[in-house]
Design brief:
This protein is an alpha+beta fold and 318 residues long. It folds into two domains: 2-101, 2-Layer Sandwich (Pseudouridine synthase); 113-276, no CATH class. 21% of the residues lie in helices and 29% in strands. It contains seven helices and 15 strands. It has helices at 2-8, 11-20, 50-61, 89-100, 229-237, 261-267, 302-310; strands at 22-25, 29-34, 70-71, 80-86, 105-113, 120-124, 127-134, 142-144, 171-177, 181-183, 190-192, 203-212, 215-222, 281-290, 292-297. Strands 1, 2, 3, 4, 5, 6, 12, 13, 14 and 15 form a ten-stranded mixed beta sheet that branches. It has a three-stranded antiparallel beta sheet with strand order 8-7-9. Strand 10 (181-183) and strand 11 form a beta hairpin. Helix 2 packs across helix 3. The longest helix has 12 residues, at 50-61. The chain is globular.
């Protein structure tokens, strides 16, 4: 896949790819259509990332004396679409403040399994981190634990040392819902529960654009900016996980997504190959109040467009 190729190329080649992905620029900002599978920041095992090539990209777009471009916000590695870069630190700080104070209107497209009921609404459920433990380095079999994960597995001492409290090496962090209410099993009434002190408020507006082949095309507007918010709200809040989201397709384990027969047929896939499906989440539009409001739009990547066509999800009227 292209994402793996981008991980291996020389930084100059990656910068050239990003230059070709430029959709808008003025004296203050540069806007790119972020490719799939490319991390914004570096980390263990990451050879190439957007942050590392910003100085090269600035020179390619302007001249050899150009100041490095600056990140203004983040997109997950697997998310494609509108990404704003600033030409100066001052502009970057202004744009970060606009994001922080929720003055930036963000619109995403996602292909989901199933369709939401109702077809339009707002999901307002807090989100919190949890640990999901896998018995293997890949996610074939795994489980969650309601207690803290310790390594080695033994009853925790009364005053554990920092070394004892290390997470299990195969534990991974995942986001999940932390609702403020639940239904009483006795009488079905809504009961307020104690708020999780680590949970973050999360609000997502959604709207159904098209549905076919046991899938839907959804328009999403995250009002807040919690990590993996759209993915968690769709999967656990609405029961409609994003196509290709193998991290949030099961409530209590990490495992490849299971697709309906009609979806497999339309995609010409067998279930054993479903694990290779990319995440179908795209940052489609971003409205930025920088002086006058700038409306920035990016087309979905080719794989997303092909999936829409195969599933007969028509967006011609959008």
């Amino acid at each position: 896949m292209l994402s793996k190729q981008l991980q291996q190329v020389h930084p100059n080649v990656l910068a050239k790819v990003l230059k070709q992905k430029t959709v808008y620029q003025n004296e203050e900002i540069v806007v790119i259509n972020k490719p799939y599978g490319l991390p914004v920041h570096g980390g263990p095992g990451i050879k190439n990332c957007i942050a590392d090539v910003l100085p090269i990209l600035a020179k390619m777009l302007e001249n050899m004396k150009a100041e490095p471009l600056h990140l203004c916000h983040r997109l997950d590695k697997e998310t494609t679409g509108v990404m704003v870069l600033a030409r100066s630190k001052e502009v970057a700080e202004r744009i970060r403040l606009l994001f922080k104070t929720r003055q930036v209107e963000k619109t995403y497209w996602a292909i989901s399994l199933g369709d939401p009921d109702p077809t339009e609404g707002i999901v307002e459920i807090p989100i919190v981190e949890k640990e999901v433990r896998s018995h293997q380095s890949h996610y074939k079999v795994s489980r969650t634990s309601s207690r803290p994960l310790f390594w080695p597995r033994a009853p925790p001492p009364r005053h554990p040392s920092p070394a004892f409290l290390r997470p299990h090496p195969l534990a991974t962090v995942q986001m999940t819902l932390a609702p403020n209410y639940r239904l009483s099993p006795e009488d079905g009434k809504v009961v307020k529960i104690r708020k999780n002190r680590n949970a973050e408020s999360a609000v997502t507006r959604y709207r159904l654009l098209a549905r076919s082949s046991a899938c839907s095309l959804l328009e999403l507007q995250p009002i807040t900016g919690v990590k993996h918010q759209i993915r968690v709200h769709l999967a656990y809040g609405l029961g409609c996980p994003i196509l290709g989201d193998h991290k949030y397709s099961h409530w209590s384990k990490l495992a490849p997504q299971k697709l309906p027969e009609i979806t497999l047929k339309k995609l010409k896939l067998v279930q054993s190959k479903a694990r290779h499906l990319p995440l179908h989440l795209h940052a489609h539009r971003l409205s930025l109040p920088l002086g006058e409001r700038i409306d920035l739009v990016c087309k979905p990547p080719l794989f997303f467009q092909k999936t829409l066509k195969k599933l007969e999800l028509d967006i011609a009227n959008d």
